[in-house]
């Protein structure tokens, strides 16, 4: 007898441990496949196709693609959400501000205020930016709190439009 044919009890023990480890790994992989299959089923909504396919035949690669499409961004208004999802555009910026001028026809001037911490002194400083927005029905008064949304250029300085009046001036 040679050494290659005869295994010592320690070598047999290691082979049994490796076999048990292999069973644990295959069990974990089967559970992962089942989880992926249920995720695909919930995203795609095709319950019949996923139930008929066995877990070993389910391809897990397409599971990542629908998740990217399923991530919905909150948007400012309902109509814009539908337009953005159909055309594949990014969500438009919205800002809340106070109307500081409404003297122009169908146009308002909105002051957007933000607070920044000074990099050296640590004191909070107010920064104000005035934006020109389109007000189709001339409903805004000076002092109103409004929400405006980014849009295509309407004139030289007008790139925003009124979405809603959040709070009327008193």
UniProtKB/TrEMBL annotation:
Residues 61-77 have a biased composition (Low complexity). Keywords: Ribonucleoprotein, Ribosomal protein, RNA-binding, rRNA-binding. Gene3D superfamilies: Nucleic acid-binding proteins. GO terms for biological process: translation. Residues 78-96 have a biased composition (Basic and acidic residues). It comes from the Bacteria. Residues 1-100 are annotated as: Disordered. GO terms for cellular component: cytosolic small ribosomal subunit. CDD domains: Ribosomal_uS17 (cd00364). It holds the Pfam family Ribosomal_S17. GO terms for molecular function: rRNA binding; structural constituent of ribosome. One of the primary rRNA binding proteins, it binds specifically to the 5'-end of 16S ribosomal RNA. Part of the 30S ribosomal subunit. Belongs to the universal ribosomal protein uS17 family. This is Small ribosomal subunit protein uS17. The gene is rpsQ.
